[in-house]
């Protein structure tokens, strides 16, 4: 029987590529798969392993075409803070500002409302959104790529991951396997210590421009509460590590609890109010993260200009109008 390499120590690029090919396509016992994933996770995944897993997923995913310069704004999730849907709101604001956004997302796993749940509560038909994703991305500048529709290779691993009941490398994969094959990304990761590791993996894979961000509280987005770790990747190089706080950009600081979310209906109502101009911590969180996305897209020269652009996009009603057009497109 084919065997997986021993994951007790970091794998070489060749070993990692072989291992993930076997995980997806090999004749392996479920217990061996579980042991491999758990051992690697508890040891701590390397950049080489993360990149190999991403390549394996990309090779097996269903893809769509995307306009030049399309971006994704996506977090790994699992931060346990149950916040409102910041990256979903950011996607609407950035798209309304003129940057095509191929939003990759899923239903909630550890929170009460994931991107799919909240968009559905807002009135987006997820089945139609999947069927029209390529068209809405071309025509409106936004689409939602419901992860379960594009990654059939993960179906076999689903029950094994559920039985494991703890984080594995596949919890890091969502942002790295966007079906639109975007080359610009704002990636939130819930573990600050992983920012440089994840950045190294993205550099291995190659991007036009990307930022990996993590709030000090273990938030998988830029936090208003305190400091944030950031890594910037261009091409195949990690070009910079930064620290950033909301206060540096003239935004108010707020504890994470100030943007705590609820069920899909609650989060949808909050998002709609935000797009209609409601002020408060949610707006500030969206402005902060939208600024980063606009910088990644090369749509603004810096974060301060990004905050201003995002605020103007909301206040002119452009993001709210885009959401209405997207729902009506169906």
From TrEMBL:
InterPro entries, per database record: Anthranilate_Pribosyl_Tfrase, Glycosyl_Trfase_fam3, Glycosyl_Trfase_fam3_N_dom, Glycosyl_Trfase_fam3_N_dom_sf, Nuc_phospho_transferase
Q: What sequence ranges are listed for the domain Glycosyl transferase family 3 N-terminal? A: 10-60
Binding residues for anthranilate 2: 161
Specify whether Transmembrane helix is a keyword of the entry. Answer: no
Enumerate the residues binding Mg(2+) 2.
Answer: 220-221
- Catalytic reactions of this protein: N-(5-phospho-beta-D-ribosyl)anthranilate + diphosphate = 5-phospho-alpha-D-ribose 1-diphosphate + anthranilate
Write out the entry's keywords from A to Z: Amino-acid biosynthesis, Aromatic amino acid biosynthesis, Glycosyltransferase, Magnesium, Metal-binding, Transferase, Tryptophan biosynthesis
The record's EC number reads: 2.4.2.18
What are the binding positions for Mg(2+) 1 in this chain?
87, 221
Q: Please provide, alphabetically and separated by semicolons, the GO molecular function terms listed in this UniProt record.
A: anthranilate phosphoribosyltransferase activity; magnesium ion binding
Among PANTHER family, the record links this protein to: ANTHRANILATE PHOSPHORIBOSYLTRANSFERASE
The Swiss-Prot or TrEMBL record describes its family as follows: Belongs to the anthranilate phosphoribosyltransferase family.
Role this protein plays: Catalyzes the transfer of the phosphoribosyl group of 5-phosphorylribose-1-pyrophosphate (PRPP) to anthranilate to yield N-(5'-phosphoribosyl)-anthranilate (PRA).
Q: What is the recorded name of this protein?
A: Anthranilate phosphoribosyltransferase
Species of origin = Sphingobium quisquiliarum P25
Lineage, top ranks: Bacteria, Pseudomonadati, Pseudomonadota, Alphaproteobacteria, Sphingomonadales
């Amino acid at each position: 029987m084919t065997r997986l390499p021993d994951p007790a120590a970091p794998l070489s690029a060749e070993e990692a590529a072989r291992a993930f090919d076997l995980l997806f396509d090999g004749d392996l016992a479920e217990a061996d798969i579980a042991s491999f994933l758990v051992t690697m996770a508890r040891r701590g995944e390397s950049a080489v392993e993360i990149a190999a897993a991403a390549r394996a997923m990309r090779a097996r995913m269903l893809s769509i075409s995307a306009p030049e310069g399309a971006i994704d704004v996506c977090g790994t999730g699992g931060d346990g803070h149950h916040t409102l849907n910041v990256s979903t709101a950011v996607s609407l604001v950035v798209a309304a500002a003129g940057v095509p956004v191929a939003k990759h997302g899923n239903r909630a796993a550890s929170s009460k409302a994931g991107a799919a749940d909240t968009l559905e509560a807002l009135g987006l038909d997820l089945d139609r959104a999947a069927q029209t994703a390529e068209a809405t991305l071309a025509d409106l500048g936004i689409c939602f790529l419901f992860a379960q529709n594009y990654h059939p290779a993960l179906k076999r691993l689903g029950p094994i991951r559920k039985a494991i009941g703890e984080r594995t490398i596949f919890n890091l994969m969502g942002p790295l396997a966007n079906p639109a094959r975007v080359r610009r990304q704002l990636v939130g990761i819930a573990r600050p210590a992983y920012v440089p590791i994840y950045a190294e993996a993205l550099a291995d894979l190659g991007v036009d421009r990307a930022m990996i961000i993590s709030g000090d509280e273990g938030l998988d987005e830029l936090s208003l509460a305190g400091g944030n770790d950031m890594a910037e990747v261009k091409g195949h190089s990690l070009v910079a590590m930064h620290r950033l706080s909301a206060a540096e950009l003239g935004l108010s600081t707020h504890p994470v609890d100030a943007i705590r979310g609820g069920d899909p209906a609650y989060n949808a109502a909050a998002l709609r109010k935000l797009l209609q101009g409601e002020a408060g911590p949610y707006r500030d969180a969206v402005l902060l993260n939208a600024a980063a996305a606009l910088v990644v897209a090369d749509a603004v020269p810096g974060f301060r200009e990004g905050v201003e652009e995002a605020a103007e996009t909301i206040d002119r009603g452009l993001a709210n109008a885009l959401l209405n057009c997207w729902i009506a497109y169906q």
